[in-house]
Design goal:
heterodimer; A: about 650 residues; FAD/NAD(P)-binding domain; Alpha-Beta Plaits; 5 domains; five-stranded parallel sheet; 19 helices; B: about 290 residues; alpha/beta; Rossmann fold; two-stranded parallel sheet; 13 helices; 6 strands; about 5% strand
Chain lengths: ~650, ~290
């Protein structure tokens, strides 16, 4: 211990410390602490001249460790450690004694006590500093590629952002085409520009971008590794078509005799069993729907194979796997609409003419099954009275979901407005709880629907609906007049709650990231780290994180891309060396620490032992220093004291406590 | 436990049920010392006296060594189940109620007796398939409108069906017995309940809407398990018919009345208790000789 000489700097912090405590008295007492080589003071240790003093001590060779008695380590620990590192002094032998927040600020009225306490604090930190080890930071390389899971608007914009900085991206989607839900939309609020017109160019851009490797019709199987070095095993689902040959000419689709309800068009019309989900699909390749294909079901047909001039149809194809290596992962898995069957009180009114928002989008879409004419699905008539119901399943903590789905007020106004544009003689009713139109030009848009397009807004909930003579009787309350309202509607559009995309729990489990109570992906901090997760190198964006509209999704995707670029631009990552470590001689391999670790940094490993020496084979805990975040949870959990944290060793903590008593 | 109306206006419900259960080999014993259930469950938090009726009845069932208490009346079902839920959830109120019944020899803790509604008994104990096997008559073209009302379904915690809004236990029961149920959107609409005492126009308007919906959707009969619903729907139809040109009446029967007829037990029914006589339609559909 004799060699461990500690230098102490006492900072005045202007009057923050010096105005309360007696600096000279502190210095005098500290100089007498065993092991302290010197005690110096300065007005502002964080200032340039203060740093110079500190640097001098680092290079003097007089001391092995330095304690700076100043503000909270959260403020300037990094500053001093960086300076020490630059001066060739081990940064982890610099410690901060907090005599501002924890002393002079809280004892402003009692200078004497504050002085005494400051000395106590410094003494304890000196004890720790004397026992500090010179630690070195681990460095890890960065694979300069990213994986984006989900190729809707959020995943596409993230991928474009990342490739814009020159880093390649794998863009994965479980569907055969990129595009997600936005590809299904008609016009978009608040400007009513056609989604196809603004969106398909982006799809083409993604498809043609050389740095974006599309991995559509793929699923994530397994993810291992850590920030900068993820290994992802993906499953290519067999499309039963050799995509390297397929040109998307569509001849097979024409010949296919089997018709199936089109998922893309929300079952409003039909596709074939060999198909592309929609004409603008990227990549423009066909897949065979095994569930409905005559050959797969009955063993005959093969019309597509006979027709294909390129011999691309391959009934023998099987799923195959691919290993990807990436430095960063972005989860952009989007949303699904809550199923209308979950709304029991509306069920007696259900027919084909009670649809959800996306189905109505397809009816509105110029490229949809009705070429944009609003025709009700049951009989193809133009609906004369149409009811829109907002907040179906949202904001209903007792029965469904507590949150607001955020986009429904706006798209309901848009739906009602577009309906009035196309059916001017018709009447549109909107049942709402309150209209949430926060957003640039949003309120004006809603007002336009009410005033110019004469949409009738009724403030109240719909309690039930039922079928009667080909109409749907919608029974609700008008809470402004206090009356019960009955509308005999031809069609009803339900603004269903948005849910995290089906299957996202699987991805969450594989990535070991968190979700909120509603199943949406949890951000690392709700305000300051909105696109990061608690797992480094994994980012989130779009409706997978929370319901949001297109402008917000695009903004968030830009933020996620920037975070990925920030990570990939580094040649290597350094890791704080203050992590947990195991004394294998003591460890009993009970595994309690493994269960505590949020970061998956601990695993049990087998040690062969040495029978000749009488050392039996055993199982012990091992810490992955890259994954470990140094939180200390395992240390306090360990029943045998085998787990310790570097520079927070038991011996150090006890010496600090002893210095007080 | 029969409940009060089953001894008076709703006699048909009791007599047909007892006959039917005998045919199904289900042995039931009338609780010797049953009390009025109170007919409504008091929502006032300090009105514990209102819960004494149902709790004392449950206690009597416990005392009689009957772990299952069969109820027919939907009102009784509702009151008993809710009072039971209250004492299970609130030990303080449970103790207060027990303390009030100091003259009783045992206490009621909450979980000793299970309240079973006839529909639950038929579904879980007898089984709809087994029930069908005991029937001797075909329902043929008979179409019914199954009417649940409120008391079997609300609050959701005591509902006899997983869905309070769109229940289907009666449709399942009758479907298994070969009786068609019509689409009936008013099946859970409130009948007006006790407003029949002081606000008749409310009940009349509800009865009109409910009966009209059943008729419009092609039903021959409305089927219910609640004596008060039965009264409100059945009794006012004549009045409505006089006031409303074109209004068609529809008979209202208890679940057990139809099932007893299908089991060939004609005598159990006293059709003079009906305001709207069901005999013509029952004869037309071959359920009555």
């Amino acid at each position: 211990m004799a060699k461990n000489r500690i230098g102490v700097f006492v900072c005045h912090c202007g009057i923050n410390i010096a105005g309360v405590a007696d600096i000279e008295a502190i210095k005098a007492s500290v100089a007498g602490i065993p092991g302290v080589a010197f005690a110096k003071d300065y007005q502002y240790m964080c200032s340039e001249p203060g740093q110079d003093l500190f640097r001098e001590a680092c290079t003097s060779g007089e001391v092995d460790g330095i304690v700076v008695a100043s503000c909270s380590p959260r403020l300037h620990e990094t500053t001093f450690r960086r300076t020490a590192g630059e001066a060739g002094f081990n940064p982890y032998r610099v410690e901060i004694a907090n005599i501002r927040e924890q002393c002079t600020w809280v004892h402003a009225g009692n200078g004497e006590e504050a002085t005494r306490k400051a000395v106590d604090i410094i003494r304890s930190v000196v004890e720790r500093a004397r026992r500090d080890e010179p630690l070195t930071e681990a460095t890890i390389p960065v694979t300069k590629k990213a994986l984006v899971i989900g190729a809707g608007i959020s995943g596409m914009m993230t991928a474009l952002g990342i490739t814009g900085a020159g880093y390649p991206v794998y863009l994965l989607d479980r569907e055969p085409s990129i595009g997600g839900h936005m590809a299904q939309l008609s016009e978009t609020f608040p400007t009513l520009d056609c989604a196809q017109c603004i969106f398909t160019p982006r799809m083409v851009e993604v498809g043609q971008n050389r740095d974006i490797a599309l991995r559509t019709y793929c699923e994530v199987e397994e993810i291992s590794g850590y920030v900068g070095n993820f290994k992802v095993r993906i499953r290519h689902k067999a499309p039963y078509v050799d995509w390297s040959k397929c040109t998307g000419c569509g001849m097979c689709t024409e010949k296919c005799p089997t018709k199936v309800k089109s998922e893309f068009n929300m079952l409003l019309d039909e596709r074939k069993a060999v198909y592309t989900p929609f004409p603008q699909a990227v990549p423009n390749k066909v897949i065979i729907d095994r569930e409905h294909c005559l050959y797969f079901q009955k063993g005959r047909c093969k019309a597509c194979q006979k027709t294909c001039p390129l011999g691309a149809i391959d009934f023998e194809q099987e799923d195959w796997f691919e290993e990807l290596e990436v430095g960063a992962i972005v989860v952009a898995t989007g949303y699904d609409l809550y199923g209308k069957e979950n709304i029991e009180e509306y069920r007696l009114g259900y027919s084909e003419d009670v649809v959800d928002g996306i189905t109505f989008e397809r009816l509105l879409s110029a490229s949809g099954p009705t070429q944009g004419k609003i025709l009700r699905p049951s009989d193809g008539k133009v609906p004369e009275d149409i009811v829109f119901i907002a907040c179906v399943g949202s904001r209903d903590p007792e029965n469904h979901f507590p949150y607001c789905s955020r986009i429904c007020c706006m798209y309901t106004a848009k739906h009602a407005m577009l309906y009035k544009h196309r059916v001017p003689q018709g009447q549109a009713y909107v049942f709402y709880m309150d209209v949430r139109s926060g957003g640039k030009s949003y309120e004006e848009f809603v007002q336009r629907a009410v005033e110019e397009d004469e949409v009738m807004y009724i403030r109240g909930r719909v309690s039930r609906m039922y079928r009667d003579d080909g109409k749907i009787v919608v029974v609700g309350a008008d809470t402004l007049s206090g009356a019960t309202v009955e509308v005999r509607a031809d069609m009803v559009v339900l603004a269903m709650a948005m849910r995290p995309s089906r299957g996202v729990e699987e991805i969450v489990r594989k990535l070991k990231i968190q979700t909120d109570p509603n199943g949406f992906l949890a951000e690392a901090h709700p305000k300051l780290r909105p696109v990061e997760t608690l797992s480094q190198g994994i980012y989130i964006t779009g409706c997978a994180q929370a319901p949001k509209d297109v402008p917000d999704t695009v903004s968030q995707s830009g933020a996620a891309a920037a975070k990925v670029i920030e990570l990939l631009s580094k040649e290597q990552l350094t890791r704080e060396p203050i992590v947990a470590y195991v004394d294998e001689d003591i460890c009993s391999g009970c595994g309690q620490c493994e269960g505590q670790c949020t970061f998956d940094a601990i695993e049990l490993v087998d040690r062969r032992g040495n029978p000749a020496m009488g050392i039996p084979a055993r199982r012990v805990a091992a810490v992955n220093e890259i994954l470990c975040q140094g939180c200390g949870a395992c240390v306090v959990t360990c029943p045998s004291g085998a787990m310790s944290q570097k520079n927070f060793r038991m011996e150090q903590v006890y010496s600090m406590i002893e210095s007080f008593v | 436990m029969p409940g009060c109306t089953l001894k008076t206006k709703a006699r048909n419900f009791e007599t047909t049920t007892l006959g039917l259960l005998e045919a199904l080999d289900v042995r039931v014993h009338e609780l010797p010392d049953w009390y009025c259930c109170g007919t409504t469950y008091s929502l006032a938090s300090d009105n514990l006296i209102m819960h004494l009726g149902p709790i004392r009845t449950l206690l009597k069932a416990k005392e009689a060594g009957r772990p299952e208490l069969l109820v027919l009346c939907a009102m009784c079902y509702n009151t008993l189940r809710r009072a039971q839920a209250l004492v299970l959830a609130d030990p303080e109120k449970r103790d207060k109620i027990n303390a009030f019944m100091y003259d009783e020899e045992v206490d009621f803790q909450g979980g000793e007796v299970r309240v079973v509604h006839l529909l639950e008994l038929l579904k879980e104990r007898v089984g709809f398939e087994a029930l069908r096997d005991r029937l001797v008559r075909q329902a043929g073209e008979l179409k019914i409108a199954p009417y649940y009302g409120c008391m079997l379904l609300r609050p959701r915690e005591i509902a006899i069906d997983p869905s309070s809004e769109d229940p289907s236990i009666m449709e399942e029961l009758f479907g298994a017995c070969g009786v068609q149920s019509v689409y009936f959107p008013f099946k859970t609409e409130c009948c007006g309940s006790y407003q029949t005492v002081n606000e008749k126009p409310i009940v009349v308007s509800r009865a009109r809407a409910i009966a009209a919906s059943a008729v419009k959707n092609g039903a021959d009969l409305i089927v219910t398990s609640c004596p008060l619903c039965h009264f409100n729907l059945d009794f006012y139809q004549k009045q409505i018919q006089e006031a409303t040109p074109g209004f068609r009446t529809i008979p209202v029967l208890y679940i057990s009345q139809i099932l007893a007829l299908l089991a060939g037990q004609e005598e159990a029914n006293d059709f003079s208790l009906h305001a709207v006589d069901p005999r013509p339609v029952l004869r037309e559909r071959g359920l009555l000789g």
